[in-house]
Write a structure and sequence with these properties.
The chain is α/β, with parallel strands linked by helices and about 425 residues long. The protein is built from 16 helices and eleven strands. It folds into three domains: about 60 residues, no CATH class; about 190 residues, Aspartate Aminotransferase, domain 2; about 140 residues, Aspartate Aminotransferase, domain 1 (Alpha-Beta Complex). It has a seven-stranded mixed β-sheet with strand order 1-7-6-5-4-2-3, sandwiched between helices. It has a four-stranded antiparallel β-sheet with strand order 8-9-11-10. Helix 9 links the parallel strand 5 and strand 6. Bound molecules: pyridoxal-5'-phosphate (PLP).
Amino acid sequence: MSKPRREQETREKQLTRFETRAVHAGERRTYLATDGKSDGGLYPISTPIYLSTTFAHEDIEQTDKVLGGEETGYSYTRYGNPTVAAFEEAVAALEGRGHAFAFASGMAAMHAALLAAELTNGAMVLAAEQLFGSTSSLLVQVFGASGVEVRFVDACDLAAVEKNIEELTPRVVVLETISNPLLRVADVPRIAELVRTAGSTLVVDATFCTPYLQRPLELGADMVVHSATKYLSGHGDLTGGVVVTDIPYDGALDQIRKLVGGLMAPFEAWLALRGVKTLPLRMYRQCENAREITTRLAAHPKVAKVYYPGSKDHPDNEVARRTLADAGGLVSFELDTRTPDGGREEAFRFLNALKVCVKVPSLGDIYTLAIHPATTSHRELSPSRRARLGVKENLIRISLGIEHPDDIIEDIEQALEKV
Ligand code: PLP
């Protein structure tokens, strides 16, 4: 047995705990031969960025075997790349099972997952009405145009989900574990049971959770999708996505990615792999910061209502406690306003007064980010749909970063004084 392989096997036996897997998984799976022989090779501690479109083999017979799948290896980067594979191995190790497939964005990942679930002409998809706007539009505009029927349901109303699954027997059910911006928590294990009984496929977008908070495959989901742009990479410096799944979907997903070509690029994969190493540390701090900020916001006279799944008065607090390791790193709140425009003016004044928190429509970064959902993430919705989803003009969403909580609180409190 070659030395690198022996070391890799020993190392993998030690990767039993989440934090250890986050640091080591995916690394040291490739080595650089110094003399053309593997045993004498260098063993980089950190996976290099393989900026290579193609990989040459010893002889053309080996190329034939790699392309034919008889031998593992790399041939052409659209089919697979060692840096991308390192990131994929790390994410699969954190999810606890299955194979990961990295994509150029979260949307490309979701699109591929839905295709792998055979969401094709004549099929029906039951989707959570709380879904990220672009995912809803992907279903309606792209899949809808090719003959897919799309139905929406309140994913946090288990009775409604059950009724719809029984009546419609959808081919696919798609939801987000924690949704934007009221941080509703879907009951993944119970919905997975209903989906399994109906013989449907459950696709869970766990972007807001990451495997630190929940591992949907272990709870019965068929595919888990992440926008790696958010918490997984965590530094606001790349766009990417990943799907983790197992038999029978992994073969289809691999083929779809090869043919559609939405593979994550090697540089992004390297950045994302670096980000994953600190995921548990970042998530721990972000969850702590969210808890602390919730307490302070709830006591503030200029705040009318706080949405945080860890609070007893949140409608999904019981589901969150039962299905998540912690309540997450996001908090939303309504300003106490009584103006005719419903509070948009005050919300803008609050956001403009922030000095530490960054005003950008994203989440999951090391920086604390603040947005006005009604004019950003939910801008494309009609006012009536926004009202039905509870997205008011006075609503602010905060994605906690890893800064000192007192600096975030002081910043929010000084901005509230300007409202
Ligand atoms: N899923 C969720 C829950 C998101 O919030 C987003 C983006 O905000 C996406 C998917 C899409 O990810 P990306 O922007 O990486 O395509």
